[in-house]
Amino acid sequence: AVCGTVFLIPIATRFLSKGISAVNRKFFGAPAGLGTQNLGNNKTVVSSVILVTISLACVMTVYLIANSMTKLFTSFKDIYTYNVQITGMDKTSDEYEFISEIDGVNSINFSYYMHINAEVSSSYNQVSLAASKNKIAGIEEVDDNLMASLKPDEIIADSFFMMKNDLKVGDSITFKADYINAPDKKVTYRIAGEMNSGKFTSMRNLVIMNLDEFKKNIFSYPDTIEVYSSIPAQEMKDKLIDKLAGTGLIIETFDEFIGKQ
Cys staple from 28: which of 32, 56, 228, 240, with CB 3.0 to 4.6 Å? Predict the structure, then answer.
């Protein structure tokens, strides 16, 4: 659109010049009209108008992108309801269950997440693989009963990812990674359903799998511990820092996490 506008500017400038010249002749006489009739053919004027147009287009583009990103991250606050998150775990979830007993903590949820290569149509595409005991925030258009009863050999894939790779429910996807707990470092799962992960990842490449299967074959350590609390987030964070000192865990409020994004 910007390129098309730039090409039309010389023509538009000439028409505008003629219009201004006609108005000047009518109201201010021939000398005034003569002074403006060649503005449209003036290379300096045309170049200046093009430069201003391109600059305004760039500013508008940056504004629209920034505004869209701001709305996106602000909307996360309506989707994710936990107060504080903990990352940097190097042990299984059992070693961190004691966090739920810290004063001020109402409950915790262990979230598992990993980028992994998926074999689709004889080629490998990177997908985001997730698992959680509770419903994963940001996931829409999914059968909740299917999520709760997902079998070890089943997965739920994003509908856009499926469409892009010509997949359908019942097809299989093979994941490959050096850390997979399988002899050939590959595991295969059947697509049992689809969902919309647009509010979880803009890439729309999310795949959800059975939690026990994730811990057994993909990665046994949780990616994030979500802390739900009824006290102010900063106060909860300070208590967690005090109780978890020396563990090397990264503790931040949800607002701090969003701010960094």
Answer: 32
Q: φ, ψ for residue 156 (rounded to 5)?
A: -120, 125
Instruction: State the CB neighbour count (10 A cutoff) for residue 89.
Output: 19
Two tokens, residue 49: 């108008």
- Written in H, E and C, the secondary structure of 75-115 is HHHHHCCCCEEEECCCCCHHHHHHHHHCCCEEEEEEEEEEE
Q: How far apart are CA 71 and CA 63, in angstroms?
A: 12
- Between CA 128 and CA 134, with CA 132 as vertex, the angle to 5 degrees is 135
Q: Is 16 helix (H, G, I), strand (E, B) or coil?
A: helix
Q: What is the DSSP letter of 136?
A: P
* Distances 84 to 80, 163, 174, 184, 199 between C-alpha atoms, Å: 11, 36, 34, 38, 19
* Tokens found for residue 212: 């026990």
* pLDDT string in tens for the chain (261-residue length): 555 555 566 666 666 666 666 766 666 666 655 555 555 566 676 677 677 777 777 787 776 666 655 555 555 555 778 999 999 999 999 999 999 999 999 999 999 999 998 887 767 788 999 999 888 888 888 888 888 889 999 999 999 999 999 999 999 999 988 888 877 888 999 999 999 998 888 789 999 999 999 999 999 999 999 999 999 999 999 999 999 999 999 999 988 887 776
Token pair listed for 68 = 């869209």
